[in-house]
Amino acid sequence: QVQLVESGGGLVQPGGSLTLSCAASGTIFSINDMVWYRQAPGKQRELVAHILSDGTTNYADSVKGRFTASRDNAKNTVYLQVSSLKPEDTAVYYCYASVRTLSNHRYLPFWGRGTQVTVSS
User: HEC profile for the chain?
Assistant: First the structure.
């Protein structure tokens, strides 16, 4: 099967930066969409950044100009550079990928378990 593992979260002061990573492993044939979501306490999960296999990106309005998504297709890894962080960016950040496995011709959804980002002074 396929596993997604996020890393890079932590505690950072307002205005600070982090780089989140999400590595996919397993019986992967190809990956289409890779997406970062986040969920703050008491709030619904929201899309943060969406990156296609060709590198095309889309961002939530709340993070445009501050967050940058990129991916390394050879490593099946997606990154999220987060900068100029604000307390309202505090959330668990989840990785999603649409993956075609070696045993299935369809693209199936997979989720990571998340990495906590806390922005506080």
Answer: CEEEEEECCEEECCCCCEEEEEEEEECEEEEEEEEEEEECCCCCCEEEEEECCCCCEEECCCCCCCEEEEEECCCCEEEEEECCCCHHHCEEEEEEEEEEECCCCCEEEEECCCEEEEECC
